[in-house]
Amino acid sequence: MALPFSITIRAGRPLHDQVVFAVTKAIVTGQLATGDPFPSVRTLSQELGINPNTAQKIVGTLTERGLLEVRPGIGTLVSAWRPAESPARRALMASHVERLVIEAKQLGLNLADVIDAIRRAWK
After folding, report:
1. Is the dihedral of CA 65, 71, 77, 79 positive or negative?
2. Which of 81, 84, 115, 76 is closest to 97 using CA atoms?
């Protein structure tokens, strides 16, 4: 079974985080739709060449975030995703924005460059 999302593994970032991001992106952009089957832990482990414990942690994280649901006898499916409405969402966004700003400044980018990049990615 080929993975229903695309990912390019990059050194320097935790593999767990990279896969969770790739799956989240696939769901948010509609590449994965509600009810679509998601690979088993074994398949995820084999396709990515990762430890089964890491694959289990990835599925667990996506399930905790409400992006996947595990149905006994059926398997793991993409859930009916809806953005969370909570103060935790704002705190998480603030954390991501702070990282983006720091990385942009390290690269010597200005605010206009960052805003242009965000606009392109939003589309």
Report:
1. negative
2. 115
5 CB burial (10 A radius; 0-12, 13-18, 19+): middle
Mean of the pLDDT values across residues 4-24?
Answer: 89
Count of residues making up the chain: 123
State the pLDDT at residue 46.
95
Q: What angle do CA 119, 62, 7 make, to 5 degrees?
A: 55
Q: Is the pLDDT of residue 120 over 60?
A: yes
pTM: 0.71
Angle at 82 between CA 104 and CA 38, to 5 degrees: 90
Show the DSSP H helices in the chain as ranges. 15-28, 41-48, 52-64, 87-106, 111-122
Instruction: Evaluate whether 6 touches 40 at the Cβ level (below 8 Å).
Output: no
Q: Are 5 and 42 in contact (CB under 8 A)?
A: no
Q: How far is it, in rounded angstroms, from Cα 57 to Cα 63?
A: 10
**103 pLDDT band (50/70/90 cuts)?**
very high
